[in-house]
Amino acid sequence: MIRSEFQKQLFRLRTYVALGLMAGIPTLLTLAFKFGGGPEHDRERSFFSLAKSSGLNVPLAALSAMSVFLIPIVVLMFAGSSVAEEANWGSLRYLLIRPVSRSRLLASKLAVAATLGCVAILVVVTVGTLEGIVAFGWHPVTSPTSGIFQPGDALGRIALATLYVIWSMSGIVALGFLLSTMTTSSMGAVSGAMGVAIVSQILEAIQPLKNLRSFLPTHYWHAWESLFADPTNTDHLVRGVLLQVPYVIIFLGLAWWWFWRKDIMT
After folding, report:
1. Exposed (0-12), middle (13-18) or buried (19+): which is 79, by Cβ within 10 Å?
2. Cα 221 to Cα 214: distance, rounded to the nearest angstrom
3. Helix/strand/coil for 262
4. Tens place of pLDDT for every residue, the chain, 266 residues?
């Protein structure tokens, strides 16, 4: 079933548009860094302002810019449409005419959606890294906190940062998948989950909430930046990884429960 699901997704224009967008943004950033002006003040020190110092700063700038909105939208597009799209087309009932359990059907759709989401994030980092090296060379990475990392070390940290960003999206992906089992509108599932992510980021900015903010699903989305701090502190990374676990368990558990009791023949 997974192979069949992959074939369906790979023949959809939406998939190529999404992956093209993931490759296009780092390309635009590289061109902007290459031919645009630099920052006017040292206080603007960031992965963006340091992009010209090393090609390996480009994927970091791309991750920083895209992980707030664009990456979540793309990964949710795959998760939110996985079941809802079939229900909208009326093909969901025919899938279950075959001797396939609902659990196996859901598992295959979740696996494909998660894989495509991972590929989308990997495209961002891979394109940013390759184009950055071509444009600005293979030099040590200077972080916004003035840490300096040799290229080999920096590449390993970029790989870890990529894996962290992938996992940090798992909570809202699970929510998008849950909503996909509850509606026939893929747009509704995507916008519902993205709405939760946006509200979470708004609440994040409300200082009086204090420690309550650490339970928001988006609270540690940028914790990967601590990999490039000097000294490196991984406390927030660990908390960010653990934070997503209950969201994934609860949302996916509800998705299975809802789909098992849902009458999809009507």
Report:
1. buried
2. 11
3. coil
4. 778 778 888 888 889 999 999 999 999 999 998 887 654 444 556 788 888 889 999 999 999 999 999 999 999 999 999 888 877 766 666 666 666 788 888 999 999 999 999 999 999 999 999 999 999 999 999 888 878 999 999 999 999 999 999 999 999 999 999 999 998 888 999 999 999 999 999 999 888 888 889 999 999 999 999 999 878 888 999 999 999 999 999 999 999 999 888 765 55
Give yes or no for a contact between 57 and 49, defined as CB atoms under 8 angstroms apart: no
Residue written as tokens 């998008």?
176
Long-range contacts formed by 41-50: CB under 8 A, 24+ apart: 45/144, 46/144, 47/143, 47/144, 47/225, 50/142, 50/143, 50/144
Domain ranges for the chain, please list them. Answer: 2-20+49-261
Tokens of 115: 């894989």
- Token pair, residue 42, equals 């040292």
The Cα angle at residue 170 between residues 80 and 213, in degrees rounded to 5: 110
Token couple for 25: 């943004």
Side chain identity at residue 41, one-letter code: H
